[in-house]
Amino acid sequence: MMGLLVFREQVKTFYGKYSRYILPTCKFVFALTAFISITLATGYRTALNNPFIPILLAVICAFTPSAMITFFICCLILIHLSAVSIEIMVVAAVIFILMFLLYFVFKPGNAWLMSLIILLGIWDIPGAAILSIGLVTGPLSVVPVCFGLITCGMVSLVNADFSVLAFGTSSLNVIQKVIYYMESVLQDEKMLLILVAAMVTIWLVWAVRRLSINYAWTVALAVGTVLYTLLVLTGNFIFDVHVNVMAVVISVILGIATGAVLEFFLFAVDYSRTEYAQFEDDDYYYYVKAVPKISVTKPEVQVKNITEAAEDAREDE
To answer: What is the pTM of this model?
Structure first.
């Protein structure tokens, strides 16, 4: 355990020293992965298959606010949808505008969460980030999470109904195509199931994590894991919502691992040395529970030259 604690301090020291280089690099890798994943998942506009385009956009995102990643993701999706149908692109653009307006109304911050959920949703494992989001963010984080899940649902519906939306039928005009797509988005049972499960899980994990109990983060992680799994599997087996069970299992395992790593780096405390204090002022009595953080320093290794030490001893004699 001591070795892991020393490693944690070394990582923190390294990050503090080189954060100006680490952050842009991480943003570049994340943005590049997201842009390539979107292109592979859609690929309707062949002109965007040029690898230089996602690289150039990722370089821009590396040195701009994280919200730019979400903006470029939405732009790429709209460009790909324009190759399917101009009407569908317009509908998607209106939905994006409404989502961004609502985002600025709630002002939840963490715009990168929408990009993360879109990326994981394309990989069909959005649950991999749900537990961690509940641990390290607040209740308003459900806003970008829900927007990310809705975006994934929009893309998956186009993939599923490509022939209908792209070519239509003799009885499906432009207005009917738009109505059909909007109804499909609003009635997407899988998207709604994951959306409800994500919202409830994030809120519950956040609430449990804030409790004044021992091992609050661990309890929150366990409760969130059980709740998310039960909600998704209940929808799959009882309400006949078609969900990839294997993908759910993989996402839960990744979520547990990520949550455990975050707890180790952000909330490592020693409950055996918990202290309680009580004091008062003119208006209130205060009951304080203080739990010390686990903190270690990197051991300093001193190397002593035995030959030089022996020569010094002979000179002293």
So the answer is: 0.86
